[in-house]
């Protein structure tokens, strides 16, 4: 008899526990693009459902810092506009509405007007009521393509020359590679400097002076954005130390699919 009462009590506790685990708030999808281009407008959407019986719905967005930095808060039951804080202040379109019909989801999304590299990081959406809460996190990279990519010959000692490739204004920190189409460049020197949120990077090599024209190529990569560009330059022998006689313009090798069309439009 005691065993029967004990088993019934355990069953009751399990049933109660199962009800407490039910979450009435559910984030169905967190739409945060992995990569976007500098100065692009973008919408980060937190698609959720909530039970009609739930009370005190609050939608929050956090940026980086282990969900400690609140950047956006909206209370659907309040008549006030969403509250924007920190890094997103004055950078959102607060008139943006996901739906004019769904009052609970109207201002759930972030409409960023002008994304910069400082907005790269983790975005966390928190949807909570008095009854339950759901949280999701995704990361976004705002990449900045180079504003300059150039190969040049620098002055060096007699019988030698120095070839340098420089890229300026890139984010995040890129990879760079210098090649000759005629000989192997065994030793190259890479230097990188951060200015604000952007990086300048250069690669150089000291070689024997040219006896005939030689083609050099420089490849710049941003692996996180699946972005690669290459510039090729023919340099001629002689005493015109800094003169570049022929350039073959930048070639896009690969890029994020959604960005390719826009990049080609800019370059063309």
Automatic annotation (TrEMBL):
<keyword id="KW-0732">Signal</keyword>
<feature type="signal peptide">
    <location>
        <begin position="1"/>
        <end position="24"/>
    </location>
</feature>
<dbReference type="InterPro" id="IPR036179">
    <property type="entry name" value="Ig-like_dom_sf"/>
</dbReference>
<dbReference type="InterPro" id="IPR007110">
    <property type="entry name" value="Ig-like_dom"/>
</dbReference>
<protein>
    <recommendedName>
        <fullName>Ig-like domain-containing protein</fullName>
    </recommendedName>
</protein>
<feature type="domain" description="Ig-like">
    <location>
        <begin position="42"/>
        <end position="136"/>
    </location>
</feature>
<dbReference type="InterPro" id="IPR013270">
    <property type="entry name" value="CD47_Vset"/>
</dbReference>
<dbReference type="Pfam" id="PF08204">
    <property type="entry name" value="V-set_CD47"/>
</dbReference>
<dbReference type="InterPro" id="IPR013783">
    <property type="entry name" value="Ig-like_fold"/>
</dbReference>
